[in-house]
Design brief:
The chain is of the alpha/beta class. Helix content is 39%, strand content 26%. The chain has one domain: Rossmann fold (3-Layer(aba) Sandwich). Helix 8 packs parallel to helix 11.
């Protein structure tokens, strides 16, 4: 039964690419593809996120699977706080942006109940395949998933509510992506997204970045795909507000969420996580085996940098800070 179920979930994905007939394709100076599409008097240019897709469908997917429990636990509390602030309603049609492994989509499906529906989208096909399996295991019938790039997608469905937990910071063109989402919302439909605030308020990531920076800068050349603008691209409240205004939203509000974040069950795991994911890890991935000789030194320095975050019982817990950003489509 699992094969047909996956096929069904994909068949009702509801994503259609805007780089269809009537669109122009061009290359920028870095050789990345972009799409130009005229809509009324506007010309939209959307970068094709080929590199970010490769990252999330490749090394970052493998990392999320390896450290799934600790990474999901860390961000879940921020998502739950945001959902308590602005929850979906019973019967809502919900879109989950950057759904990853699907736990947020499953959560949303339960919140809207059997008369509602949750639809999760992600750029990484391997993420979506895993998400479908998770929904099947949960026995839910009001969940679907689709692989698509939100920047280059015109949704076929209409949604009442859109949620994203850490899924909107990696857009090359966030205005285009969030405009596509807004156009899929019913009049007065709501957006609720969680994004990281500034580095200084997320020390568990920032300390690792500072440690690696003592040894390495980004290499001039690397074949390793990058994840996009990075986790702190929406850290500035004015930037987020401006993006949403240009994407056509109203009633924009940002609520600061400061919560403890479990980086690892012990110091060894915390070091491994920091060297696997985040800004510091990306620099190391770009260098690859060219810097294998200094990796033990970096790990030792990181151990010292995180030592004061160890609590009773041995877990490593740091402060973390996000914005819960809410807005609505015009009536």
């Amino acid at each position: 039964m699992k094969g047909p179920a996956i096929a069904l979930n994909r068949a009702v994905g509801g994503c259609s690419s805007i780089n269809a007939e009537g669109s122009a394709v061009a290359l920028d100076r870095q050789g990345r593809r972009s799409y130009t599409r005229r809509v009324g008097d506007d010309v939209r240019i959307v970068e094709d996120n080929v590199e970010a897709t490769e990252a999330w469908n490749g090394p970052l997917f493998d990392i999320w699977i390896e450290y799934r429990d600790i990474l999901t636990e860390g961000v879940r509390r921020h998502g739950e706080r945001a959902l308590a602030l602005e929850p979906p309603r019973d019967g809502d049609r919900v879109l989950d942006i950057g759904c990853g492994l699907g736990d947020t989509t499953v959560r949303l499906a339960r919140l809207v109940g059997p008369t509602g529906h949750a639809h999760g989208v992600d750029v990484a096909d391997r993420m979506i395949t895993t998400a479908i399996k998770q929904a099947e295991d949960a026995g839910l019938g009001n969940v679907t998933f689709a692989t698509c790039d939100v920047e280059a997608t015109k949704f076929k469905q209409t949604f009442d509510y859109t949620f994203s937990r850490m899924g909107t910071m990696f857009f090359a063109n966030p205005v285009a992506a969030l405009r596509n989402v807004r156009e899929a919302l019913a009049p007065g439909g709501r957006l609720n997204m969680v994004v990281w605030r500034r580095k200084l308020d997320n020390e568990w990531l920032h300390r690792a970045e500072l440690v690696v920076a003592e040894y390495l800068e980004e290499p001039e050349e690397s074949d390793v795909p990058r994840c996009g603008p990075g986790p702190f691209s929406m850290a500035n409240a004015d930037t987020v507000t401006d993006v949403l205004k240009h994407a056509g939203y109203e009633g924009i509000r940002l609520a600061r969420q400061d919560l403890p974040y479990k980086v690892g069950t012990n110091l060894d795991e915390a070091i491994a996580v920091n060297l696997a994911i985040g800004p510091a890890a990306e620099v190391l991935r770009m260098w690859g085996d060219r810097v294998d000789d200094i990796r033990p030194k970096i790990a030792a320095d990181l151990r010292a940098a995180l030592a004061d975050l160890v609590i009773d019982g041995g877990a490593v817990v740091a402060g973390s800070s996000t914005w819960a950003v809410t807005a609505r489509a015009p009536l």
